[in-house]
Amino acid sequence: MLKRFSALVLAGVTAFAMAGCGSGSGGSGGSGDGKIVMGFSQVGAESGWRTANTKSVQESAKAAGIDLKFSDAQQKQENQIKAIRSYIQQKVDVIAFSPVVESGWDTVLQEAKSAKIPVILTDRAVDSKDTSLYRTFLGSDFIEEGKKAGQWLVDQYKDSKDPVNIVQLEGTTGSAPANDRKTGFQQVISADPKFKIIASQSGNFTRAEGKQVMEAFLKSNPKIDVLYSHNDDMALGAIEAIEGAGKVPGKDIKIISVDAVHDGMQALADGKINYIVECSPLLGPQLMDLAKKVVKGEQVPARVVTQETTFTQDQAKQALPSRKY
Ligand code: AHR
Fold it and tell me: Which Gene3D superfamilies match (predicted)?
């Protein structure tokens, strides 16, 4: 009896270590209480956006009566693959994940498909040619976000003939938002040769790396007119670097960012950022609805695009008091 109890404890500890702090009692094909069991592999905790997204997923699972097994991959693809394999072993009802990078998922997704466990992509896409490896993709149109950022810049400088020197803080290398926000922005600004991207480097979506990379940009480029940052956290780090260099963010260097998390919106309202393209992290409720449908075997759209807006400094001042994240 004691031996059996120890084996059970050991199995429980192993499952926890492999798949993070699961809330469910699954592990043998279902929660045992009729609840849907979802295995969710999160990218990490790299930004304010990610924290809000995690909260949205966890709260929505609770509200929807879904038993959530949650794991944080710390921005490492190998950790996500391990977590997904652990969810397959535990025979969860549905797997959802936000892929840290776009490529390299076919093998593990094929394993989920062979085990007949439906997969939902949330927030970020994969570049797999075989779209039967997942049931749906819920998240933003990152190319559109990049285009909105580029369009604001084009409009701002429409009456100027002088060259506009831009530095770009890219998100995590190989990730869908970094690839697509870069592409969308480039597509719009390339219509006018006065816009020049003079330096572009990854700040990995974090405040610390955004600051570090911006410091290097400032050292090697005496004339920077505009910073385009793929998220608010990197822009906030860059603001510290700009102020440290004795310049005024929002004035000496115009800043365009993406996300519209609370701290970014505050910097926008304070005049330190000039424009933010919204990327909503509140994907939880839609994710739980989709999960219920795929588990029941119902048809779901192959792509669900998040509704988003943009913010000027005045709009940020108005929106801040009721901002949820
Ligand atoms: O995938 C969404 C992006 O990931 C957010 O824009 C960024 O802040 C996060 O880290």
Answer: 3.40.50.2300
Q: What pTM value is reported for the model?
A: 0.90
pLDDT tens digit string along 189-198?
Answer: 999 999 999 9
Domain range for 171 is: 142-279
Going by C-alpha positions, the residue among 9, 79, 11 that lies closest to residue 44 is 79
- Residue 291 to residue 134: CA distance in whole angstroms: 12
Separation of alpha carbons 117 and 106, rounded Å = 15
**Residue 36 in tokens:** 């849907």
How far apart are the C-alpha atoms of 195 and 154, rounded to whole Å?
9
Does some domain include residue 2? no
SS3 210: helix
121 CA from centroid of ligand 1 (Å)? 14
Residue with tokens 């997204």: 53
204 φ/ψ sector (left φ>0, alpha ψ -120 to 50, else beta): left
- Whether 315 and 296 have beta carbons less than 8 Å apart is answered as no
Ligand 1, residue 281: give the atom nearest the CA: 2
Q: Are residues 192 and 106 in the same domain?
A: no
Question: Is the Cβ atom of 258 under 6 angstroms away from ligand 1?
Answer: yes
Are 222 and 250 in contact, with CB atoms under 8 Å apart? no
